[in-house]
Amino acid sequence: MPIHPWHAGLNRVLLGAVVLLAGIVPADVFPASPPAPKGVEGQYSGKQGQIILVKVPTDDAAAHVHGSFLGRTISFFPDSRPGETKGFVGLLGVDMRDEPGTHELAIEIKNGGQSRTLSYTILVVKEKFHVEHLKLPKDKVDLDEKSVTRWKAEQQLVQEALATDSQMKLWQPSFVEPVHGKRTGIFGSVRIMNGQARNPHNGEDIGAPLGADVAATNDGVVRLTVDHIFSGKGVYLDHGLGLYSMYFHLSEVLVKEGDLVRAGQIVGKVGATGRATGPHLHWGVKLNGARVNPYALLDLPFKGVEQSAAPAPVTEPSSGVGAPAP
Ligand SMILES: [Zn+2]
Questions:
Q1: Nearest partner of 222 among 186, 253, 184, judged by Cα
Q2: Taking a C-beta distance cutoff of 8 angstroms, is the pair 124, 99 a contact?
């Protein structure tokens, strides 16, 4: 299970006591008081590469809520799950290489000129990733100077294309597995290619026949289509609020940059372009800049939530996504 909230009931009691105290003690006593210890207002835990659903209870439906975790910005949106208390939820991506241990999630709740902050603790639990040995033709592993230059330029291009998150939540409650096939379970694994350690594998590989349909995991905007040295023909979808999904090694790309796509829409065909040993889909997901296991999306507890036509409030100037698909 990717989500492990360990709400401490004690914190609520403590908070209640503070609120009560604030009611009877003159406000000017407080500036001299030391700030509340970090992390006492909420506690969650999750493994490296997983997604933690963080809840911020508030009656203030018009508020704008943002969080900061390890230098990354987490966007919150109104929680519409039935039976849940009023408030906001945010999806916090734990990067596959975030340091195990406790880290602060600082949350800011703004409304007009007013703002208040909350301090949550996130416990990052170490995941045991595989070590994978691969043997590939030498010219596919040891890049010549020209290929290194090309690869660096491609990295730069991707970084720029994904630098500005759409501030509108485009995704709907149910995520779709892009292609049905054998999951390799190698997300996060360290790859040793021809004896040399490489970057950890930042997605899941799904074995599927050449030409099989590849579906968008959810609604979004096509942010980038590529034909890159490693990823081959690929599609990058922007689902808003810092969530991106990517589909690599395609034989064909069937969408254009700027297209609005719906969950389940075919965006390409399975292939073996780029650095691939055979036809498969490399499915990757980035959330708030963190590399997370794409399958964590399928486990999110949003199923059964009514699809809402109203988008989440725009909290920052939009980065070009005008409106969600009707
Ligand atoms: Zn892969």
A1: 253
A2: yes
How many angstroms does the Cα of residue 205 sit away from the middle of ligand 1?
Answer: 5
184 CA distance to ligand 1 middle (Å): 9
174 alpha carbon to ligand 1 midpoint, in Å? 24
Residue 244, CA distances (Å) to 132, 218, 292 in order:
26, 10, 10
For the segment 196-210, the average pLDDT, to the nearest whole number, is 92
Cβ neighbours for 204, distance < 8 A, ≥ 6 positions apart:
183, 184, 185, 186, 187, 282, 283, 284, 293, 294, 295
pTM: 0.81
Q: How far is the CA of 249 from the centre of ligand 1 (A)?
A: 9
Distance CA 238, CA 223 (A): 6
pLDDT at 237: 98
Q: What value does the mean pLDDT take over residues 318-322?
A: 36
Q: Which of 4, 5, 325, 46 is nearest to 172 (CA)?
A: 325
Residue 291 corresponds to which tokens in the numbers above? 């590399």
